[in-house]
Amino acid sequence: MKMKIFMCLKLFPLLFVLFSSSFSGALIKVPENATIPAVMFFGDSVVDTGNNNYITTLVRANFLPYGKDFIAGQPTGRFSNGKVPPDLFVEELGIKPCLPPYLDPSLVDEDLLTGVNFASGGSGYDPLTSNTMSVFSLSDQLEMFEEYIIKLKKIAGDEKSSYILRESLFVVVSGSNDIWNSFFNNLRQFQYDVPSYTDLLELYRLGARRIGVFSMPAIGCMPSQITIRRIGLERKCVTEYNEIAQLFNKKLLSALTSLNAQFPQAKMVYLDFYDLPLDMISNPQKFGFKIVDKGCCGTGTFETSLLCTYACSNEDDYIFWDSFHPTEKAYRILIHQMLQENINYFICGKSLCS
Q: Secretion signal: which residues (predicted)?
């Protein structure tokens, strides 16, 4: 095995070899005769694995206690204590242990062949959201993806590149930042609605066929929003915010259904990021959690990014790592169920997989 520092781990070569040898492969069974050669992610801080480390922005997580439970306790720019959804996607599918950020200057050919991550913490569907936070918008991320395709073709040639793009999973996670930064704070609620999905059509134009889109989470149950809108002595979910998320999700599902009808070769999959997290918050003991209304970081009520300076010692009791992002334990439960429920649809669409 060629000795190198694994891009998403940033560890010494020996540790990479040891970790790779213990990587047990796929946990999710892919339908017979189907392959998923790579995974690509686009979106915000929920799925950023370190791109923001390479740009000038305050939206960063490349310092402890972020990453305290990642490989060798390394803070890598992931907004959690450990792995985040892109890492768990490739791990569960048996592709590789983690999904590296595209902007990592030490990427090698194998990283590009098996998938990279274009997400940027603080971004949104609305360009104003990304401009406000000085991060990469979805349009910017798609420009990076076009650059990636050029590199891929140089490595693999046109035919294999087309195969990789056609058979890989492409996942978009966005929308929450639009609600906070644009919808409420900048008074765009009378202009902004569910986006036109031109970004999804651009992915299709560039060769992607298996495209998943995360729904909006139960944003009213995030510790930061409970703190901001706290009413009385109890820390309860903000119903108004959850209703906005439900409306968004209803329109998202409708839009994806319409796009699937227009482009029958595509598999555009609605990935529910609302119901299971809400069930976890409503019934924490069923999933092995104790604390649902605060994050592990700081007081757990408002700290995110640079405000996260210290952490609890019992993070596995928490659904939320900081006041916005879940813990690795919570993500593992969510992503495993998400993939189990949707892997056949990514491959076969509405048809039954044989």
A: 1-22
Residues taking part in catalysis = 45, 322, 325
Residue 164: the pLDDT is 98
Would residue 157 be called left, alpha or beta, if left means φ above 0 and alpha means ψ between -120 and 50 degrees?
left
317 burial level (CB within 10 Å; 0-12, 13-18, 19+): middle
- The tokens describing 22, both together, are 């213990």
On whether the CB atoms of residues 37 and 113 are closer than 8 A, the answer is yes
Helix residue ranges, H only, 168-238: 176-177, 198-205, 223-228
Q: What is the mean pLDDT of the chain?
A: 88
- SS3 category, 152: helix
pLDDT tens, position by position, 184-236: 555 455 344 455 577 889 999 999 999 999 999 999 999 999 998 776 667 89
Return d(Cα 8, Cα 99) in angstroms, integer: 6
pLDDT tens-digit map of 77-115: 999 999 999 999 999 999 999 999 999 999 999 999 999
H helical segments located in 138-222? 138-167, 176-177, 198-205
pLDDT of residue 124: 76
The pTM (predicted TM-score) of the whole model is 0.91
> Among candidates 227, 219, 226, 137, which has minimal Cα distance to 176?
219
CB contact set of 167 (below 8 Å; sequence gap of 6+): 34, 35, 36, 37, 209, 210
Domain 39-281+328-348 has CATH 3.30.70: no
